[in-house]
Amino acid sequence: MTRTLFPRLKGNSRGCLAFEPLFLLPYSMFATYSTLYMHELGLSETQIGWVTTLTLAVQVFSSFISGYLTDRMGRKAALLTFDLFSWSVGTLLWAVSQNVWFFVAAAFINGFQRVPHTAFYCLLVEDTEPKERTYVFTVLQVIGVVGGLFAPLGGLLVHHYGMVTGVRIMYVLAFVLMTAQFLGRHYTTHETEMGLRKKRETRELGLQASLRDYASTMRAIFADRSLLLMFGVYILFNFQMTVKGTYLALYLKDELGVADNLISIVPAVSSVVMLLVLWLVTPRIPERLMHRMLMWGFVLSAVSNAMLALTPTGSMGWIAASTVLAAGATMITAPYLEAAVANAIDDEQRAKMFALLSVLVLLAVSPSGIIGGWAYLLDPRMPIWLVTGAFALSLPLLVAVGRPGNRIVGETPPVSAD
């Protein structure tokens, strides 16, 4: 299927993305309702924030070890092992959750998702030419967008079976489809050349030497100003995604009066808009304008979230306008941001550098659940204003990236001499 629809995909990128819908379709269904599911089972807004923060705290640890494990085990083995643990086991635990302690256990298990995240990232890009990476991340975004079209199926389940039973069905479905994805991808991809070499080197070096290598990688990050600036943008982008992903559904229900079964319409509308942008706009944007597109995308994202924060209760027109604007901005920015970060990291240090980036991201983002919970208690609009502020703060960083003397966004970095 990917060969027909996306003929430029080759090798591991094709194998990775061919099975990605099996993950993103069920994820788009339960992600919309996960916060409401916890709330329905008796968790308060603050407890939801603590559970989110616990997940992120475990992700800090798993991110730190993900580079070592990805190099030590190989990209494929690390990907399969920890995907089955963090997602297959995690979704089953969510499906039978009864109280806050079930969600605490699931948060701990799911927190190890950062290991397969690093392994997937390496497997996806290492054998892909830098000039093709924007295309690969665009296809990944497309698959995620199409997955969002199926979010209303979750709404139908909630409407027919009620919130708790409907979401339990979604989690069981996620377990089946995600497990099938992990196995299918494992048998249709191959270990990368870099992965094979790093696997040999890591076994020869041992754990202590590998940890020293982490220290040198961290020094390399802090010595590269343009890389630090891009990491700053990436951190703020992930902060706003966590806050909005956790509290948007509650905000739409409690503050704006949207019915439970209609909340899933929001990601579906977003998906339609993203597909239109992909079809009509993205092909007309040359690669050399990547930096400018990131700037405009972040401006539009800030405006769309400010509109949502100012939306009067029950005003579906404002909600629709904000959703359309945010979706268009996301389709412009997300693939370019991922490609820019991927191209800023050289293959020689990719696993460890991406692992350390994940640690930095998560250290900054981990408090977002608690911050969002407290902000929501003060005013349900406050988390949306935090999202708006994150986009606004990113703009001066992007301006600095584009200044003479810094690597231009999307430019391939020099090959490491190490």
Set out the fold topology:
Blueprint: H1 2-5, H2 11-18, H3 21-40, H4 45-73, H5 75-95, H6 100-110, H7 114-125, H8 133-148, H9 151-161, H10 163-186, H11 193-223, H12 225-255, H13 265-280, H14 290-309, H15 316-344, H16 350-365, H17 368-378, H18 382-401
Structure description:
With 418 residues, the chain is mainly α. It has helices spanning 2-5, 11-18, 21-40, 45-73, 75-95, 100-110, 114-125, 133-148, 151-161, 163-186, 193-223, 225-255, 265-280, 290-309, 316-344, 350-365, 368-378, 382-401. α12 packs parallel to α17.
Number of strands: 0
Number of helices: 18
Main beta-sheet annotation: none
Proportion of residues in helical segments: over 70%
Regions with pLDDT < 50 over 5+ consecutive residues? 408-418
Structural class: mainly alpha
Mean pLDDT metric: 82
Describe the global form.
globular
* Rg for CA atoms: 21 Å
Strand content: under 5%
Distance N terminus to C terminus?
40 Å
Order of helices and strands: HHHHHHHHHHHHHHHHHH
